[in-house]
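ok so for the tutorial part 2 we go from a plain amino acid sequence to predicted structure tokens. step 1 is just haveing the sequence, like this:
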Amino acid sequence: MTGRERRKKVDRLTFLSAMAGGLVHEVKTPLSTMSVNLQLLKEEWENPETQKEMRTLKRVEILMREIQRLEDVVNDFLHFARGFSLEPVPSNINRLIQELVEFMNPEALRQKVRLSVFLDPGLPEVPLDWKYVQKALMNIIHNAFQALQDLDERAREVLIRTARRPDGIEVAITDTGPGIDPERREKIFQVFYTTKKDGTGMGLPVVRRIVEEHYGTVSLHSEVGKGTSFVLFFPFDEAEEGENRESPDNDRGVKKGTG
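step 2 — the prediction. this is what the tokens look like for a chain of 259 residues:
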């Protein structure tokens, strides 16, 4: 991308961000008002005595959940449109992934998923804002856990792998789930596209936005009946590679498994 093209893209995103901010404000205000009033109604019907009162309370609770879901959609859209205020620092992604796996192990065990990692020992540090990269990785891993729930427990596995490439590092998250058919693959990064009952359709678009703001890319590889792999690529500055390559914090090949 040339400097001129980059400036045009930044200008376009700035314009869209301003529009999104105004739209979100107009939507969130009535949603907040409805949420407050429904909470007051719920308190009034807190101890239902008749069938009618119980049905009314149930409907109020359903409306409250739907309003919360709409607020989540609006907030995710705002973050997607505005982008993220990244503060990248040189990071050892192997060590950070180890910490993430330790954090997610309890959920993997609860869902009877084997969560394994294979970390390339020769990775240099790369500039990352781990708060947002962690959000992207967790989103993909949660999706993988959900994709495995209809499989036999012995077949449920999620593998996280890192690898070095000539101009950056690669993080691949692979599951042994049912895979994604070609039609869904074409739409999966579209805003608001979802096949989940309670999905917002913002998870994977946000993942891609986070990675692209790190000047990286996200690719999807899937085969129906065999599984799916999301590959995140983060570039590094060749001028800094020599310094980072010998970093004492670099991990020496780690392979772990749970479940």
